[in-house]
Amino acid sequence: MATTLSPSGLKTVGAYNVTNWASTYNDNFTLLNNTLLKLSELMDVAKAGVAHGKILMYSEPAGKWVPVEPGKLLSTNRRLKFL
């Protein structure tokens, strides 16, 4: 028997030999691919301004990841700096 986890809707099973474990895992991957892995479903990402070619940068004042143009960041070995 599978147990549903909230709020994700993913299901867990106790072991691989549990009846219908394969269909439970298939259902989980379908759910992940169709909804949970989409940017629009992430609660800590600002959706406004998302476009091809932009990258996500964490904004402490907003408390979210926000889309920015790559030119606004400078990579220096291990750190990214604002220009």
Notes on the protein architecture:
By secondary structure, the chain is an alpha+beta fold. The chain folds into two domains: 3-37, no CATH class; 42-83, no CATH class. The chain is built from one helix and six strands, in the order E-E-H-E-E-E-E. The protein has one helix at 21-36, and strands at residues 3-4, 11-12, 55-59, 64-68, 73-76, 79-82. The chain has a two-stranded antiparallel sheet. Strands 3-4 form a two-stranded antiparallel ribbon. It starts with a strand and ends with a strand.
Largest sheet: 2 strands, antiparallel
Counting DSSP E segments of at least 2 residues, the number of strands comes to 6
Assembly type of the shown chains? single chain
**Mean of pLDDT:** 77
Q: How much helix is in the residues?
A: 10-25%
Rg, please?
19 Å
The share of residues in extended strands comes to 25-35%
State the strand order across the main sheet. Answer: 1-2
Spans of 5+ residues with little confidence (pLDDT < 50)?
none
- Structural class estimated from helices and strands: alpha+beta
Order of helices and strands: EEHEEEE
* Backbone shape: elongated
- Helical region count? 1
How many structural domains in the coordinates?
2
Distance between the termini: 54 Å
List keywords for this structure.
alpha+beta; elongated
Topology (SSEs and partners):
Layout: E1 3-4, E2 11-12, H1 21-36, E3 55-59, E4 64-68, E5 73-76, E6 79-82
